[in-house]
Amino acid sequence: MNMISNSRFPAFSWTRRARLAAAPALLLGLSALAAGASAQQPDAFPSRPVRVITPFPAGGSTDNFLRPLAIRVARILGQPVVIEPRPGGNTIIATSAVAKSPADGYTLLIAVNTLLTNSALYRKLPYNTATDLVPIAYLGEDGFAVAVSGTLPVTNLAGFLALARTKPGGLTYGTSTVGGTTHLGPVLLEQMAGIKLTQVSYKGGPTLLNDLGSGVIDMTFDGYTGMAPLLPTGRVKVIAQTGPRRSPSMPDIPLASETPGMEKFSLKFHVGLYAPAGTPVAVLRKLNLAFREAVDEEIKAKSLAYNLQPLNLSVEESARYFQTELKFWSDAVRHSGISIEE
Question: Where would one find the signal peptide in this protein (predicted)?
């Protein structure tokens, strides 16, 4: 399998040539947005409620994080901000609804990494991630927790890799979504560390974590908050985190990149806000400023509680962030060989 070099992960690269090639397209897209700004003056927006469609069910952690944020954004904009859950279809249902909506700023999407991985995972999608959506802002990012069963005789990532090398294919990892980050994380770890693991698929995270705690499987990649209740019992151990910096939720857990030989290993998840492509740039900027202003100390505390380190990016910075992450995760899927025939 051919692999390309990258500063975050050597197997997956956006080379300098590729970045230079992509830059005109990115600038052209922002210029097109600016040209459309006259279609709707920022002072006139919004004149009615704004819908934020989310692919996550009501009452879940993402939903619980968004609702107090939406209340603050509504106060700033002077119009209600309605959170509308549309779960299902590996986030495709919600994404498609927003991608096909009028580009007027009244229908927005909250999405995570799945938006980016789906673009390479599925052969056919009812939208084009790169051209049908435009980022408004990113609410936060953080790394994944690398967790092992408490029954496994290792205390850090170096020990896990050493054990895996002694028994190729003998250690297992659990995944809750084919092609999702719980799947791609271990695959990228295999490729960079030169180890062989065996995948065990689950239909949901709770069953996966229960089996991890019982020693049925050996390892998984996941968000810290989901496994936090198991940590005091000793049934699950977090041996590394994959972000570019230590998370406030896991200050004593070393980065995967602190492990010898894994210095370039860095994976992160994020929560982003998107609009249909063609939305006037003045509207994007007004929404961007409203969401950034709404992140007060209470919202920051909620972000950290959900393992999200707040970001404070402009519309232009968000566009660059989107292009970088889309390229990285799309390459990760393609080089992993994972695909879904749909």
Answer: 1-34
